[in-house]
Amino acid sequence: MSSTLSPTSASPRVRRKPSTRKRAGSHLPQPQTQESHDAALHAIRKTLRGRTAYDAFPVSFRLLVLDTKLNVKKALQCLLLNGVVSAPLWNSDKSKFAGMLTVLDIIHLIQYYYHTASYDTAAADVETFRLESLREIEKALGVATPPMLREHPDSSLYDAARLLIQTHARRLPLLDNDSESGHEVIVSVLTQYRLLKFISINCTKEVHQLHCSLRKLGIGTYVHPLSPPEPEEGHDNPFWPIATATLDTPVFDVVHLFSEMEISAVPIIDEDGIVVNLYETVDVITLVRLGAYQSLDLTVREALNQRSPDFPGVVICTASDSLGTLLQLIKKRRVHRLVVVEGDEEERRGGKKGRLLGVITLSDVLKYLIGVTSIGGSVEQFEEAIRSTDRLAVPNVSLPS
């Protein structure tokens, strides 16, 4: 006999409560498109427009200011002992800002004495030569006097960046006025490196979205595929328009390149064009500080032996590296320029790995980030189209260390 079990009454209907658990976000990487790159670039520019130069100040910093009455040799010792390559100048007679002492000023001084005086005369003059007389050296050499740049600390980082680019300056003095005396006060100096580090720290999400390669973005100066249009006699440079030298090049020839081309470093290459080192303006200052004015006749190979042992080395990259990768590198270490060399991609096309391909300066990176250059104007058009409807939040600011 079979029996069937059945409830004596219908069971009440149970209603489920809605789940309060949040669905986990996707861990899949965001698609990398030109639109996402341009959107990240726009967000970075908006951040710079909404922040002031004060925001880029590190938590703790020191400011070295040199009186124009100081002689050049003592000024160089101050720079090197404090680990800096430039400093604001102060005219104590007028109680006002008097410009910047930079490495280029020292290069001009070296050129002047190398051509117009003997070693003994130069050595004696540098002992007594005052900073206030540097502008006279520029007039004697026929070089342009650097503009007296300044900006208020309350100005936006975007405006400060544009001023740096438009004037080809690497640093921008920030000045305020004393509320009681009305005299100028030098607050700090904003450098290209400090500005780019601010971006890498405070725009982390956007930096990761800058996936386009340096080659595609046109950031930097690259070896021209053809020879110079009209090569001068004795100036046939296979790496034109990049200035290069070898280990056997006299130091003064490199110093001349620094001044003539207004650059601060020259790649050192071997007979195959492989980058073996980098000679910088700081290396020349080291020779002058040691009193080795006659060392300008030495070769680069001999001069490099006197380089400080804590030289960080040459930072290299390939043209296929992304802009985001470069900014992440700036976040981790102090970088002033990168030497672009041929990589695997160029080697597959018949090139040679490690051969010089280009040079990227911080100025090149900053130009692109603030909008001086873009890919066919696509970024500027994108900004104009979404400016009125933009609702992107400005990220919180972290102070650089």
From TrEMBL:
Coiled coil: none annotated. Residues 1-11 have a biased composition (Polar residues). Residues 1-37 are annotated as: Disordered. It comes from the Eukaryota. Residues 13-25 have a biased composition (Basic residues). GO terms for molecular function: AMP binding; protein kinase binding; protein kinase regulator activity. Residues 144-210, 236-298, 307-375 form the CBS domain. Keywords: CBS domain, Repeat. Signal peptide: none annotated. One of its GO terms (cellular component) is cytoplasm. PROSITE patterns: CBS. SUPFAM superfamilies: CBS-domain pair. Belongs to the 5'-AMP-activated protein kinase gamma subunit family. This is CBS-domain-containing protein.
